[in-house]
Amino acid sequence: MPTRIIAALLAITATITAACLSIQSGLQRGGLPAEQALWVAVGVVLVIAAHLLPALCRPFDWRVRAVGAVIWIGCVAATCYGHAVFFITSARHAGEIRAASIPVATPQGRDLTAIARDRADAIARLARANARRCAEPCPSLTAERTALAAKLDAIDVEQAEAARDRAAQDRAAIDRRAAQADPVTGPLASLGWSVSRANLFSGLAFALVLEAVACFAWLLALRAAAVTSTAETPANQGSNGLSVTPVMAVAMPGHGINPRPDYPKPPPPPGPPALTVAADIDRVMVAVAAGELRATVTEIRKYLGCSQTRAATVRRSVEAAAAVKETMHANPTPGVPC
Questions:
Q1: What is the C-alpha to C-alpha distance for residues 250 and 256, in angstroms, rounded to an integer?
Q2: Helix (H) or strand (E) holding 95
Q3: Residues near 315 by Cβ (< 8 Å), separated by ≥ 6?
Q4: Rg of the Cα trace of the chain?
Q5: 163-178 pLDDT, tens per residue?
Q6: What is the pTM of this model?
Q7: How far is residue 25 CA from its own chain's centroid?
Q8: 313: exposed, middle or buried (C-beta count within 10 Å: 0-12, 13-18, 19+)?
Q9: For the residues of 200-267, what is the DSSP string, one character each?
């Protein structure tokens, strides 16, 4: 599979993913349906602009690139913030679902406060009963003391049961808080970060990586598409450029005429494929002949959207072809019509 197709598939996938994140983030941040629709529209526009601006601004000069870079930085920052909102909200929802799976410990008896109050009352009554004295054996006082001691023992048992229930509730609450914490960002809290700051940092990191992948993939895809479309131009395709007809020496009867060896030849283009450079030479010659372009390296580079080296090569080839044409008109070969 060509590299251009792979880069295009990766770029499209990353852009669709980022657009879906922006849509979900807009739905979470908006209240009314109209507000949600506007948040979604703004997020999608910022995503597309952040992904395509580097590739679209590349053929222009530095002024357009500088303005595009400033706008691109703003788009990336806003897009990353929207993605971070989605990541933080989704992490909170996941924590709530994990916490809901932990069973809730329900107390079976009375509250510890009521039990402590009854126990204090039983202790006071038992103390008063123990303080009473009888001159002779008093069965009623003995029975009261025994009943109060038994009641105090029962209250102690109830208090122990309530304490176990309270400990179970505390453990369940601790488990729910641990389940709500993200398993990845939770350990960052041990480094001194708060949970909210760790969630924000991880969300921004994920969003920034996604935006970087999308921007770079679109840059590769569009650059590969431009290079491929230029390189696949047929060699025998009709061109509006000025064609240079090579001059052949013709031997006249009774005269031996050798070919003229003093005609300059265009230098072979170094580096780029010959087919691509020939197509660029034809385009430049047509533009120069029509008065639309000056044969300078800067103008040729802007016209073709190529590098400085390639523009210099095309300029030398165009000047050499023009010199050949002028030589042909100035010194016509005998026997060959001009």
A1: 9
A2: helix 62-100
A3: 284, 295, 296, 297, 300
A4: 44
A5: 888 888 888 888 888 7
A6: 0.52
A7: 15
A8: buried
A9: HHHHHHHHHHHHHHHHHHHHHHHHHHHHHHHHT--TT----SPP-PPP---PPTT---PPPTT---PP
